[in-house]
Amino acid sequence: MSLQKVSSDGRLEQLTELRDILATSIDECDSMRDLASLSRQYRETIREIESIESGEDDGDEIASIILRHRKSDSD
What we know:
By secondary structure, this protein is mostly helical. Helix content is 84%, strand content 0%. Helix 1 (3-28) runs antiparallel to helix 2 (32-54).
């Protein structure tokens, strides 16, 4: 397995774990202020996961690096 694959898999795994933690926190949240913040973080995390899985570049520096490496591996 290439270093790029390990790096992107590691990032995806971390984001997936964060998504799960945020979802649990949202379910258990009693504060509307905290709920808004958690919801925003959850949406951003989901967006980043989808970007990595689809190989799209949405302006995220990490996604750009991963996408460049994927393209160079396929050439």
